[in-house]
Design goal:
about 120 residues, 7-stranded mixed β-sheet, mainly beta
Length: about 120
C-alpha cells in the first residue's frame, strides 16, 4: 500500500502563489503516477495535474500555464506549484497515487489540504 500526506494549503489573495506537497510512503516503488485533484463545494472532484514515473506531465486546461507539478529527485514527494491563483481555484486539493499492475480500486488518496483564494 501507499500512504499520502498533503500539506501547504492556506489562504492567499488572488494573484498569489502556493506550493502544495504530497509525501508518499509505503510501497512507493510501485507508484506509476501521482495526480492532484481538487473539489470545490457543490462540485465534482476534478483532476488538476498528473505526473508519471517517467516525468511526463498533463494539466487541466483551467490551470495550464499557472500550475506546475513536479517530483523531487530521490524523494517520494510530489509538488504542485500554483501561481496567479484565482478565486475559482478555491477547493480542497487531494493527491492520488496509482500503482503499476493494480486497478484504480487500489489507488491511494491523501486526506486533502484546503486552498482558499480571496478576491
Amino acid at each position: 500500500q501507499v500512504q499520502l500526506v498533503e500539506s501547504g494549503g492556506g489562504l492567499v489573495q488572488a494573484g498569489g502563489s502556493l506550493r502544495l506537497s504530497c509525501a508518499a510512503s509505503g510501497s512507493t516503488n510501485e507508484i506509476s503516477t501521482i495526480a492532484w485533484y481538487r473539489q470545490a463545494p457543490g462540485k465534482q472532484r476534478e483532476e488538476v495535474a498528473i505526473i508519471t514515473s517517467g516525468g511526463s506531465t498533463i494539466y487541466a486546461d483551467s490551470v495550464k500555464g499557472r500550475f506546475t507539478i513536479s517530483r523531487e529527485n530521490g524523494k517520494d514527494t510530489v509538488y504542485l506549484q500554483m501561481n496567479n491563483l484565482k478565486p475559482e481555484d478555491t477547493a480542497v486539493y487531494y493527491c492520488k497515487a496509482s500503482r503499476r499492475g493494480y486497478s484504480s480500486l487500489y489507488d491511494s488518496w491523501g486526506q486533502g489540504t484546503q486552498v482558499t483564494v480571496s478576491s
